[in-house]
Design a protein that fits this description.
The structure holds two protein chains of two kinds.
Chain A (H helix, E strand, L loop, with lengths): L3 E12 L2 E12 L3 E5 L6 H8 L7 E6 L2 E2 L5 H8 L2 E4 L11 H12 L4 H14 L16 H12 L6 E5 L7 H18 L2 E5 L3 H7 L2 E6 L2 E6 L1 H5 L4 H14 L5
Parallel strand pairs in A: 3-8, 3-9, 6-7, 7-8
Antiparallel strand pairs in A: 1-2, 1-4, 4-5, 9-10
Helix pairs in contact in A: 3-4, 3-5, 4-5, 6-7
Chain B lengths: L3 E5 L4 E8 L17 E10 L1 H11 L9 E3 L3 H12 L15 H34 L7 H12 L3 H25 L5 H40 L2 H7 L4 H40 L3 H11 L2 H27 L5 H32 L3
Parallel strand pairs in B: 2-3, 3-4
Antiparallel strand pairs in B: 1-2
Classes of the chains: A alpha/beta, B alpha/beta.
Chain lengths: ~250, ~375
């Protein structure tokens, strides 16, 4: 089994005349929990869309599980899609389906299991995402923001992917729900052996559950490593970014 | 490695091997309710939560049954099985909620219909108050928005109105002419065309076109704004969504509909004139002379009078349905459909009322 799950080489992206990525390289190994950070407009979400096959970069190579995303045939791409799950920023639940069917949709489409079993597996995923059993029959519009994120996480986990992409998983959640969500992601990553790649702005997430942080700046990877290692880097944006946390935590001598 | 599982009756063990994922379900042996006391996972090469759940569900069909003994599992696989086992009670098959009977469906429908009509009345009330308040303050009228709406509703609809009414005029004149010729009453075709196009066909067809084209667009647009909270933002800025969004659209429809009906009148008469010339040998000169003789101003005015009434109903229904969208995408579609259906029903009913009322009033 290859050790490298995601490999990005020399990616260039131009959107609407703006150069977003200028020769971006990064690698993610199996079992890592990675956070991608960077200022607004540095192309974090764009990169995520390129990795999962929604947006084509101008040039460069993106490999998932050793298979180039943008050279894969539709059948190969579908096989790849089964191996990763995506949590979109606002959950992107299907508003016409109830929660259970939302989570069961990937199972309906990608497996030959009877629908009854798919729904039971969907409820297992809801349980893993720490949701009470009575949400299964509700509509997404009846849920709170935090619950919708959990349902979206359950849907991302439906096919037991090896790799999980999360776009700002804790944005829009209150700090308590956000920390609970962090803990849940780490727990699932450890117990299911998941590789997690998340885009975030949340400093608390970085400090609590992340193995390695990758910083995007000026269309390239500025640095990659633990939070402590990144603090050594001399970059104005990064310094200001970590200072935001230091100020608020300084009375406790953090 | 493909998944395998077999049942060993002597030790009452379910022995699984290979990659156990969702697809492995077909590899489960038929156990016919025999008890499983041991789950043997020594031969497993991969196990995910879907596979673990399938094995557990086979080993103990009821989540309340005692957990089978786990034998030979690798530590990582054992952890997955134990994690899944904690959540098994939630996955028990739930009975589908009972189907609603005809009676409760009828009742629910009647209540929903009553609520809908009450909501429409409430909307009309708010709109009236808001409009009256605006009359005294011309400075707050949204001229630019009004002009943009008139352009969309009127100019954009001209080609389709002309095309449809011209063809309807052709068809109507052709069929009427075919009958009239048998009695040598060719010239009376002109009377028939004028009466039908001006009084009935043009107002009703234009109203149906506008309901399908503009009514649906208004509902979808306001509905999408509701979903993205734009309407809440307008209200929070101290502006009235009715004054900013609804009243300009309503006025634009009031202005555009009579104009469209008039254009439809002209197109329909041109269509009839073409057929009269080709089929009945009534030259355009004769047609126009006859028209000057028999056309009463009131025939034209009756048609033009219907237009703003239809316009008010289309605008009311479309705006109200747009603002009644709840915050999910399905409701945008449902309300848009509903706008078109309600508008068509309203147009047909109003037209029937007009027909009877005008006859009774000798108009």
């Amino acid at each position: 089994m290859t050790d490298t799950v995601l490999d990005i080489r020399d990616v260039h992206t131009t959107l609407g005349g703006n150069s977003i990525h200028r020769g971006l390289d990064l690698t993610v190994r199996r079992g890592e929990v990675i956070a991608l950070i960077g200022g607004s407009g540095t192309g974090k979400s764009v990169l995520l869309r390129e990795i999962i096959g929604l947006l084509r970069p101008q040039s460069g190579r993106i490999e998932l599980f050793g298979q180039s995303v943008w050279e894969a045939s539709p059948a190969q791409m579908n096989a790849l899609r089964r191996r990763f799950g995506v949590l979109f920023q606002d959950g992107a639940l299907f508003s016409s389906l109830n929660v259970e069917d939302n989570v069961a949709t990937p199972l309906f489409e990608h497996t030959t299991l009877p629908h009854g079993i798919c729904r039971q597996l969907a409820r297992l995923k809801l349980g893993l995402a720490n949701l009470p059993a009575d949400v299964a029959k509700k509509k997404p519009s009846e849920l709170s923001g935090g619950m919708r994120k959990r349902v979206a996480l359950a849907r991302a986990l439906a096919l037991d992917p090896e790799l999980l992409f999360l776009d700002e998983p804790t944005s829009g959640l209150d700090p308590i729900s956000a920390r609970a969500f962090d803990t849940l992601i780490r727990l699932l990553a450890d117990s299911l052996g998941l590789t997690v790649f998340l885009v975030t702005h949340d400093l608390d997430t970085l400090f609590s559950i992340i193995d390695r942080v990758i910083v995007l700046s000026n269309g390239r990877v500025l640095g990659s490593g633990s939070v402590a290692e990144l603090k050594q880097l001399d970059d104005p944006w990064l310094t200001a970014y970590f200072a935001a946390r230091a100020e608020e935590a300084s009375p406790h001598g953090n | 490695m493909t998944a395998h599982a077999r049942y060993d009756a002597a030790t009452r063990a379910l022995i699984a091997s290979g990659d156990w994922q969702a697809e492995a379900a077909s590899a489960l042996p038929d156990m016919a309710g025999q008890p499983v006391q041991v789950l043997d996972g020594a031969g497993l090469t991969r196990l995910d939560t879907n596979g673990a759940w399938l094995l557990l569900a086979a080993a103990r069909p009821d989540a309340g049954d005692p957990m089978p003994e786990l034998r030979g599992f690798a530590p990582a696989h054992r952890a997955v099985v134990e994690l899944v086992a904690q959540h098994c009670t939630a996955t028990a098959r739930q009975p589908d909620p009972p189907r609603e009977g005809l009676r409760s469906l009828t009742g629910r429908g009647a209540v929903a219909m009553g609520r809908h009509l009450a909501g429409l009345l409430d909307f009309v009330g708010h709109l009236t108050v808001e409009s009256l308040a605006l009359i005294g303050r011309p400075g707050q009228w949204r001229w630019r928005e009004l002009a943009a709406q008139v352009r969309d509703i009127f100019v954009g609809a001209i080609p389709i109105v002309v095309g449809m009414l011209f063809l309807l005029g052709v068809v109507f004149a052709y069929l009427l002419g075919d009958q009239a010729r048998q009695y040598g009453a060719n010239i009376f075709v002109v009377d028939g065309i004028l009466m039908a196009i001006l009084r009935e066909i043009s107002p009703v067809i234009v109203a149906i076109l506008v309901a399908g084209r503009t009514g649906a667009a208004i509902t979808a647009q306001l509905g999408a704004m509701k979903v993205t909270e734009e309407i809440d933002a307008i209200a929070t800025l101290g502006l009235s969504p009715l004054a900013v969004l609804v009243i300009p659209r309503m006025l634009a429809l009031l202005i555009a509909m009579p104009l469209l009906v008039f254009i439809g009148d002209v197109a329909g008469i041109l269509g009839g004139m073409l057929v009269a010339q080709e089929q009945l040998d009534i030259s355009s000169h004769m047609f126009l002379d006859r028209m000057a003789d028999v056309l009463l101003l009131k025939t034209l005015l009756v048609g033009l009078f219907k237009a703003p009434v239809f316009a008010i109903f289309i605008a009311l229904i479309a705006c109200r349905m747009g603002l009644a969208v709840t915050r999910d995408s399905r409701s945008v579609g449902a309300n848009t459909t509903s706008t078109v259906v309600q508008s068509l029903v309203a147009i047909i009913i109003l037209n029937a009322i007009f027909a009877v009322a005008f006859v009774q009033l000798n108009i």
